[in-house]
Amino acid sequence: MLSLLFNNHLVLSHRIQQLSCWIQSLQSRNYWQYDPCQKIPINITLNNSWLSGFIDAEGCFNVYIVKRAASQNGHRIRLRFILDQKQAKNELIFIRNFLGTGFVSLRSNKNKKYIIDIFLILL
């Protein structure tokens, strides 16, 4: 059952709430009798694949190349990594701190979408 795969493997608080509602719904219909749902998010580490899966699903990498006469090679190169998620400001701040760089900001006030923006400028 999918609930066994998800339970105790979630990081995002709103996903834990969704799983809890789903398990309660299954239990109320007597489809599934299961222990209580996960209440505390798991920690992000390099020992599991959660972060790479999250980046694969929600992140993107960009390379901008712009002509710039002041540079030695005549170009400015900017590498950018973006990761965004609705209603996950605290989780994105944790990821930013875990990675040791970047900025977390509100991308869309309408749906409370937050973004981590990490960039590196190569001259």
TrEMBL record:
Keyword Nuclease: yes
Keywords: Endonuclease, Hydrolase, Mitochondrion, Nuclease
Top-level taxon of origin: Eukaryota
Record flagged with keyword ATP-binding: no
InterPro entries membership: Homing_endonucl, LAGLIDADG_dom, LAGLIDADG_Endonuclease
GO annotation, cellular component aspect: mitochondrion
GO molecular function terms noted in the UniProt entry: endonuclease activity
Pfam families: LAGLIDADG_1
Gene3D superfamilies in the cross-refs: Homing endonucleases (3.10.28.10)
Residues of the Homing endonuclease LAGLIDADG domain: 51-116
Name listed for the protein in its UniProt record: Putative LAGLIDADG homing endonuclease
Record organism: Bulbochaete rectangularis var. hiloensis
Organism placement in taxonomy: Eukaryota, Viridiplantae, Chlorophyta, core chlorophytes, Chlorophyceae
Name of the coding gene: orf123
